[in-house]
Amino acid sequence: xxxxxxxxxxxxxxxxxxxxVALTVILAKKEWREKxxxxxxxxxKGTTEALTFIRENREQIFDQxxxxxxxxxxxxxxxxxxxxxxxxxxxxxKESSEEIIQATKxxxxxxxxxxxxxxx
Length: 120
Fold this sequence. Notes:
- It is built from three helices and no strands.
- By secondary structure, it is mainly α.
- The N and C termini lie far apart (98 Å).
């Protein structure tokens, strides 16, 4: 347990120190500070716009989600029905194939019996 903590602690310390150094370098250059400030402002503006859009269109968004969920449910039901029909068809084909094989064997047996009978 002690052995596992040591590398983790060292890694965590390294990440904190690296982050502090990176932040210091960014804050040391004025143009980088301005760029960071602009990006933070744009992020805040974008988030605010997204929240406003969601608030203003909440009902339509919920309706769309509800409609989509209904459509997905219908597609799943349709797929389930198709799988059921395919399964039934495959079962029928298997039964038909077995009947054909048996009929072929019976016919072959009858032909052999006819060959073996002396002709009168």
